[in-house]
Amino acid sequence: MTNNNMSKAAQIIQQGGLVAFPTETVYGLGANALDPYAVAKIFALKERPSFDPLIVHIASFDDLEQLTSGTGENVLRLAKHFWPGPLTIVLPKSDKVPDIVTSGLPTVGIRMPDNPTALELIRTSGCPIAAPSANKFGQLSPVSASHVKKQLPDVDYVLDGGATSVGIESTIVSIEGNTCQLLRPGFITQEDIEQAFPGTFVFNQSKPEKLVSPGLLKSHYSPKKPLYILSEAGKSLPEASGLILHSVANSAHTAGKVIYTSQTGNLVEVAANLFAALHTMEEDAHVKNIFIEPVVEKGLGMAIMDRVKKAAYQYNNHTN
Ligand code: TXA
Ligand code: MG
């Protein structure tokens, strides 16, 4: 990252433009969070429905105070433990946050990303940055600058920070008193929060009644080709198939093109390489159908399978 690129990016943010930038999870499509006109451009470029609120990214705890109408002791402890990092906390918003950012909700999702380029962009711009993932609505999340340019060629600027390290989106929680609701599973798991704060939070397991977090949409994160979750072991797939596996132990499966997200089923590696593997399959003209091995839905496996099931949803038969 040259200083030049950074000042140019910050200038675009200050002038109400859009900058795609790396975070530790996925690339974000950023605008000045306090400028409703700039934020409106995010929805237009992404073709994102206006009911889907944005996450506001901050670089210091001082920013937190101006964006929320009050943070309890538990929230501050949670934020201080996991920030900078892949945890978004949904909090009561202050009047400073434009309604377009929160889609009219009285709450705002906030996180401090653990990526030097993202933090520097926020600091240099001098404002909090509202950013969804830098993809067209419903499509694959971008984990490199080239993924962003593929889907959003008209973005004002892309800050290239290389491949992202975590690879899947942040965990989203809402906190009321000591009740914690997981709105979107992510890299930080319920177990991580429980271990860091034993006995502090009661996890509300019930699904929110209305769509408070479109991360809860059944179809999302989808490649432009049919994607199927493998159900049987040792399958020979047609030549025109792409196959994504998570361990060489499963190499009995064969297909025209095989990508391993990990050699050993290591879930941190699987998460880091998941979207890149899907992008590669999407881009490969020889691949007509994509097959992906499932992982066990425990710990980080929950977030991985959340993305995989939503990516595959529209290509599978459903009764509901
Ligand atoms: O890791 C991430 O979270 C990435 C990077 C760029 O920070 N961002 C990201 O943003 O995944 P996006 O817009 O693709 O997903 C954000 C999710 C949406 O499903 C949105 O509904 C939810 O956050 N969200 C934002 N504000 C909310 C609020 N006030 N209440 C409930 N959900 C909220
Ligand atoms: Mg997204």
Structure description:
There is one protein chain. By secondary structure, the protein is of the alpha/beta class. The chain folds into two domains: 3-216, Alpha-Beta Complex (DHBP synthase), CATH 3.90.870; 227-313, Rossmann fold (3-Layer(aba) Sandwich). It is 31% helix and 18% strand. It is built from ten helices and 14 strands. The strands form two sheets. Strands 7-1-2-6-3-5-4-8-9-10 form a ten-stranded mixed beta sheet, with helices on both faces. A four-stranded parallel beta sheet has the order 11-14-12-13. A hairpin with a 2-residue loop joins strand 8 (171-176) and strand 9 (179-184). The longest helix has 17 residues, at 267-283. The mean pLDDT is 93. Bound molecules: threonylcarbamoyladenylate (TXA) and magnesium ion. Residues 132-133, 141 line the site of magnesium ion (MG). Magnesium ion binds at residues 132-133, 141. One of its GO terms (cellular component) is cytoplasm. ATP binds at residues 48, 107, 133, 141, 184, 221. Keywords: ATP-binding, Cytoplasm, Nucleotide-binding, Nucleotidyltransferase, Transferase, tRNA processing. Required for the formation of a threonylcarbamoyl group on adenosine at position 37 (t(6)A37) in tRNAs that read codons beginning with adenine.
